[in-house]
Amino acid sequence: MLKQLHCSNFRNFSSAHLQLADGLNLIYGANGSGKTSILEAAYFLGMGRSFRSHLSQRIINTQHSECTVFGQVFFAEELNKIGIRRQRSGNNEIRINGENTKGLAQLTAILPIQIITPESFAILFEGPKARRQFMDWGVFHSQPTFHRLWAATKRLLKQRNALLKSQSSPAMLNPWDKELINLAEQVSSLRNNYIASLNEVLKGIIEQFLPDKNVVVSYYQGWDKTLSYQEVLAKQNQRDRELGYTVSGPHKADLRLKVGNMPAQDALSRGQLKLLVCALRIAQGQLLAQQTGKDSIYLVDDLPSELDAKHRGLLLSQLQLTQAQILVTAIEPSAIIDSLSQPPSKMFHVEQGKVVEQK
Ligand SMILES: Nc1ncnc2c1ncn2[C@@H]1O[C@H](COP(=O)(O)OP(=O)(O)OP(=O)(O)O)[C@@H](O)[C@H]1O
Ligand SMILES: [Mg+2]
Questions:
Q1: pLDDT for position 117
Q2: Which end of the chain is more exposed for a tag (fewer CB within 10 A), N or C?
Q3: Which residues contact 36 (CB under 8 A, 6 or more apart)?
Q4: Which protein residues have their CB within 5 A of the ion that is ligand 2?
Q5: CA Rg, the chain, in Å?
């Protein structure tokens, strides 16, 4: 859990400090006060990037050339001090317990973050990338071998594509393919098992959030499931050569979300879609806690939007059931407080780039 969050020159904050509590932290304030920016700072600390823009330089206050975020994170029975600095040139500098480190993966492992924002719908509407990232977040945190396997798979795919582009002979491709097939099958099997476990947890939450909807979440591995990857590469050899890249494989994996036979985005209302995205994220956090004992941190931006009072209450109580630390933002605090059975652990008022804890 994130005990302290400190940021400087981040968006509209020259400096902000939050001493966070276990349980629910409510962050409220007017439009443009900086609520989303606080969640963004926490996300940046765990992920090394923003959830709002692919251009992470945008998080740096316009008057400055770099921004920093520090945090104290309770993880693996210890208090860890982590920090990240972003320069306008694009450089990231990461420190964990006083030592510089290059690997973002280390940071991510210490701070498992679940984000839910009004933009989280992307997971349903956009291409498979966002859904693959969602799935791989879970596999990464629950299977220590996944990170290495997936990184090696991506490297091999890159090499294979370069060879395909240069019209290399099949004899040159064969040794690479053998290794790629082996890795792809391993990656796929980890993902497949993960989605099966996720579905178990998801069922109960969907029953609460969307009781009359038959939501089906299924895994697509990136190639025809009746064939081995070896058979697929052999079958598509000619096509891959013509196109100069590998058409099928674990890089095309996806998570398919349906209600009955219809794609979820066509079958559900806006509020119901929001609840589905929340259910997926909550299930993921619960499963992680079950499998590894690691607690996620939930960042929920503008929780009240698109939900009626009953569904706000349902969502908040499911979030609280995860036992995780939760950072929730809202414009009016009553939109959250009125839907809770007990008051939030802490409240923070944000006003023009200043954060004040409310006692
Ligand atoms: N790089 C930056 N430097 C300085 N200010 C910035 C930067 N990026 C964004 N801002 C400003 O920071 C302010 C806070 O934005 P933020 O999105 O955090 O507000 P918010 O409280 O979430 O508002 P809303 O309720 O409308 O969602 C805005 O006024 C925005 O224009
Ligand atoms: Mg906002």
A1: 92
A2: C
A3: 52, 117, 301, 302, 329
A4: 36
A5: 22
Does 37 contact ligand 1 (Cβ within 6 A)? yes
CATH numbers and ranges of domains, the chain: 1-112+295-359 (3.40.50.300), 121-292 (1.20.1050.90)
Ranges of H-type helices in the chain: 35-47, 104-110, 122-125, 128-142, 146-165, 170-209, 229-235, 237-243, 264-267, 270-292, 309-321, 334-337
What is the edge-to-edge ordering of all strands in the sheet holding 92-96?
Answer: 13-19, 2-10, 66-75, 78-87, 92-96, 99-101
Residue 161 region, left (φ>0) first, then alpha (ψ -120 to 50), else beta? alpha
Residue nearest to atom 16 of ligand 1 (CA): 34
Residues of the chain under the 50 pLDDT cut:
none
Q: Is 58's C-beta closer than 6 angstroms to any atom of ligand 1?
A: yes
Per-residue pLDDT at 56: 77
For residue 138 and ligand 1, the question of a CB distance below 6 A is answered with: no
